[in-house]
Amino acid sequence: MQYRTLGRTGVQVSTLALGAMNFGAIGRTGQDEATALVDAALAAGINIIDTADMYSRGESEEMVGKAIAGRRDDIVLATKATMPMGDERNRQGGSRRWLVTALEDSLRRLGVDHVDLYQMHRWDPNTSDEETLSALTDLQRAGKIRYFGSSTFPAYRIVEAQWAAREHRLSRYVTEQPGYSILQRGIESHVLPVTERYGLGVLAWSPLASGWLSGAIRAGREITTSRSAFMPERFDTAVPVNRAKLEAVERLAAVAEQAGLTLIQLALGFVTAHPGVTSAIIGPRTLDQLRSQLAAADTVLPADVLDAIDEIVTPGVDLAPGEKHDTPPALLDPALRRRAG
Predict the structure, then answer these.
(1) How far apart are CA 210 and CA 234, in angstroms?
(2) Cα(80)–Cα(110) distance, rounded to whole angstroms?
(3) Is 55 a catalytic site residue?
């Protein structure tokens, strides 16, 4: 296992992070399975675990808490907030009112008195940076969080939050968690240059592109990944962008084979090769999946392999731009880019 410094924090984290989104109802993973995954990940040298309050409506945090009991101090523990946690309109977002409550709920579910990294799961356009950063700074000073970060923020929002922290003399986001894979490279053109400029640690989610780069999705095979059950439109090969992804996967599989690697090793090695990336978050549901992903822990892709990847998917390009979560609102809502009257 390799280790890198998380931004400018001085904290050393493994280049593979264990994501716990599949713990609980989402991945149909029970407590014994979740504990076995944590045991195996820690034994392999992974020292950072990432979860969120909204994963299976808190069940993931509860399972993580039970799995790490007795060894909390050996783990860099990260969770997230801002996504809806119920029907009541104020149980979401980046307000001080909600973040204080959400953190207390997360600490209770995790069974700990603090988290190492508290992340804003999404940008809340209804709340000012000053409001959110002020609340996070106070929670940090109270010892309930060590650091805080953002997740899936557009590049300009990362910049504005850094400016607001300086303007109001508040603590700042020290990490960003963007989606990044060989098939979705858009952040190379906007987010990663910004995170590098501000010295943010980057924890990349979905490095296997929701299973497209797991080796299970190949031409001529029925697609049966767990994600295809609740996001069928993202796996329907009658859709042009999905056909483009499948064509890229076939070409990438050939590159991996020629290099003596699995497709998973190629995919994870690509993400961790970028100088702006600290860790790739893996989210296995089974021990077999975890083992196949741990095989990439020490994968270093040579220049000729990275060049071959660039030939297949152009740097800075998303093969499925509609699947992005950091698109500026004005690109999604015509009313926001058309002057009234």
Answers:
(1) 9
(2) 12
(3) yes
Which DSSP category does 280 fall into? E
The answer to whether 76 and 13 have CB atoms below 8 angstroms apart is yes
Which residues does 7 contact at the CB level (< 8 Å), separation at least 6?
A: 174, 175, 199, 200, 201, 278
- Name the burial class of residue 244, with classes exposed (0-12), middle (13-18) and buried (19+) by CB atoms within 10 angstroms of its CB: middle
Verdict on whether the full-model pTM lies above 0.85: yes
126-150 pLDDT, tens per residue? 999 999 999 999 999 999 999 999 9
pLDDT digit string, tens, across residues 283-330: 999 999 999 999 999 999 999 999 999 999 999 999 998 888 777 777
Helical (H) or strand (E) element with 148 = strand 145-151
With beta carbons less than 8 A apart as the criterion, state whether 77 and 109 touch: no
- Closest-CA residue to 126 (of 85, 98, 168, 167): 98
Active-site residue, selected from the candidate residues 3, 55, 118, 198: 55
The H-assigned helical ranges of the chain are 31-43, 59-67, 96-110, 129-141, 155-167, 191-198, 226-230, 240-259, 263-273, 287-294, 303-312
Q: Tokens 């940090």 correspond to what residue? A: 140
